[in-house]
Amino acid sequence: GNSVTQMEGPVTLSEEAFLTINCTYTATGYPSLFWYVQYPGEGLQLLLKATKADDKGSNKGFEATYRKETTSFHLEKGSVQVSDSAVYFCASNTGFQKLVFGTGTRLLVSP
Amino acid sequence: GAGVSQTPSNKVTEKGKYVELRCDPISGHTALYWYRQSLGQGPEFLIYFQGTGAADDSGLPNDRFFAVRPEGSVSTLKIQRTERGDSAVYLCASSPWEAGVSNEQFFGPGTRLTVL
Asked: Which of A41, A42, B6, B65 is 20 to 30 A from B106, alpha carbon to alpha carbon?
């Protein structure tokens, strides 16, 4: 079946540092790919998505590119802020319906 | 506009008891999903409704778990004879439906179930 693997955390960075959180997937067919974010005390929110190979999703300064050749969807941000501290989940979508999530990566940004 | 709401926010029960968890989706969303999130893990799919019918219940772990959505809006997840291993956060999500499109799922805050 489909699966998603993402780097373990926590990832600890200073403010304005560059962020990469790795995500790779296995799938039959061509899934859509997502990054969800869970801020402390809040529910899951969609951060960005890409629906086909070479698509780039972007939002709030975060970006991720759907790489079919490496089956990856790494999340990047050029300059993180303290307010970006959260848990980030990579996910794939099979059959346009259920989401398959990675285990989550906690990001801690210090001033 | 109201988002997805779930009640109760916390539920503590004893092993062997029956529990019901409620989800109110965003108005007009025809698709509704239930996921379970154990500590330190990502959400795991349980069941998906399209309207009133369960289109995919392949994630339900066993026959103690059951979910309904009788009028195509509110959904209830029912767990019989609860076990300690059922302790988790149960998440509900809803989405609009357009065939052939990966519709964004909007998540509720979850119900934290603790089985003692």
From this structure: B65
How far apart, in whole angstroms, are the C-alpha atoms of residue B17 and residue B80? 7
Count of CB contacts below 8 A, A vs B?
Answer: 57
How many CB atoms sit inside 10 A of residue B26's CB? 18
Yes or no, beta carbons of B104 and A45 under 8 Å apart: no
Which candidate in A5, A98, A100 is best for mutational testing of the B interface (most B CBs within 10 A)? A98
A32 and A92 Cβ atoms separated by less than 8 Å: yes
Is B101 close to A96, i.e. CB distance below 8 A? yes
How many C-beta neighbours within 10 Å does residue A23 have? 24
Chain A residues with CB under 8 Å of B45 CB are 98-100
Judged by CB atoms closer than 8 Å, whether chains meet at A97 and B59 is answered as no
pLDDT tens track for B21-50: 999 999 989 999 999 999 889 999 999 999
For every residue of B77-110, DSSP letters joined together read: EEE-S--GGG-EEEEEEEE---TTS-PPPEE---
Model confidence pLDDT, tens digit, residues A18-55:
999 999 999 888 889 999 999 988 889 999 999 999 99
Contact status of A97 with chain B (Cβ, < 8 Å): yes
